[in-house]
Structure formats: C-alpha cells, structure tokens
Amino acid sequence: MPDFTYETAHGAPDVPVAGMDEVGRGPLAGPVVAAAVIFRRIPPPELAALIDDSKRLTARRRELACDALLNSADVEVALGAASVAEIERINIGQACHLAMRRAVARLPTRPKTALVDGHRAPELPCDAVTIIGGDRLSLSIAAASIVAKVVRDRAMRRLAQRHDAYAWERNAGYGTAVHLAGLRDVGVTPHHRRGFAPVRHYLSYCAEAACS
Predict the structure, then answer these.
(1) Maximum CA pair distance of the chain?
(2) In DSSP terms, which residues pair with 192 in a beta bridge?
(3) Which of 69, 72, 160, 162 is the most exposed place for a label (fewest CB within 10 A)?
(4) Following CA atoms 204, 156, 144, 21 in sequence, which dihedral angle do they give, to the nearest 10 degrees?
C-alpha cells in the first residue's frame, strides 16, 4: 500500500508537496486527464485506507475514494486535460505533460515539489521528482491516479451516450474487441485518435478502398 514517506521526505505537510498522475495514455479515443493532489495534513487512517494504485481498485472503490478526496477540507485537488486534437498535434507524451502542467496551474496552492509517477516529468513551476511505480508507493500520487481515472471514466461514459457502438462506458476508449468492431462497422468519430495504429489502419484501409 502507498504511504506518506515520499511526501514527508520533501517536507510535507508543512511544505506543499503535490502528487501527480495521468490517465488515458493508451486508449484509441478520448482525452488524456491528469490530476494533482496536495495533502495539507497527514492523511487520517480512514482516508489513507481508501487509497491505492487506481488499477488495483474496483470501480466502486475508486468512486468512494475519489468522493472522499474531493470532499476533504484537508486535500487540494486539481485536474488538467489534453484534447484529442492536442494529442494529434503534439503527440501523446507531450499531451500527458501538458495535462499535468494544467493540473498544477489549477491547484489553489503552488507546490514546492511535485512527485510525478513514471520516469519523465514535465516542465513545472516547481521542483519535480519522478517515482517509477509511484502510484503504488506515494499516497498523493495514488490519490491523483484515482481522481484522474474516475473523472476520465465519467467523461467516456458521457461520450458513450452519443456514440453507443464502441462500449466506451465499459472500455474507456481502449481497443477492446467491441471497440474495434464498432470502429469497423460504424467508423471513426471526432473523439478517436487518428494517429493511433488501429484507427490509422482503418482510415488507410478506407482510403485505399475508395481509390480502388
């Protein structure tokens, strides 16, 4: 389980330390979403017990943890996103960093240090420390992973109501068999990432078929 060790090593909670993570690097559709989380006090045990790497939690547990974080007076949460158009223009890696920068910019308190999941950090207006596997080690990074995942999943469920052929409410835009079947049967929406291989291959096939 993640704990508060990395945060205290950088002065938290006396010094503002933000945990950061992004969700949506791999899907074929939808935005990438990042979250930044600052614990202004050491998280109480009942809150800490809800927090883990978002991938290790059920959807119900993520929702409960997200609501607890958003409703806590001692937790600052901010979100940032990069659109499909931005992903196509600057590539997915840069779009993830753009979403992270936007999340930090929206925090009520500017952090002195940002703990970033992974091995690369964006340029930020504060010190940045990368932690590989940080969502399993740091409470604030794990909290950020939960909030980003819940918010993005909710957005994909809303999109699924308008584009019901792809089962985005179940796969969040990832390239499952149902999603690929929808792509083949219905085609590409404005929310698809045209530079990602399955979508790109479909568009190439359609272009070749039209010319033959």
Answers:
(1) 67
(2) 29
(3) 162
(4) 0
Over 80: is that where the pLDDT of 13 sits?
A: yes
Q: Which two tokens stand for residue 178?
A: 């149902």
Identity of the amino acid at 156: M
pTM score, two decimals?
Answer: 0.94
Query: Whole-number mean pLDDT of the chain?
Result: 95
Q: Which residues contact residue 70 at a Cβ distance below 8 angstroms, ignoring those fewer than 6 apart? A: 77, 147
pLDDT in tens, 68-125: 999 999 999 999 999 999 999 999 999 999 999 999 999 999 999 999 999 999 999 9
What is the C-alpha separation between 69 and 96, in angstroms, rounded?
Answer: 22
Q: What is the pLDDT of residues 143-167, one digit of tens each?
A: 999 999 999 999 999 999 999 999 9
CA distance linking residue 100 with residue 32, whole number of Å: 10
Contacts of 127 (CB under 8 A, 6+ apart): 112, 113, 114
Pairing of strands 113-117, 17-23: parallel
Going from the C-alpha of 21 to that of each of 55, 106, 212, the distances in angstroms are: 12, 15, 46
Residue type, 65: A
The residue written with tokens 């504060």 in the block is 126
One DSSP character per residue, 163-195 reads: -TTS-HHHHTT---HHHHHHHHHH---TTB-TT
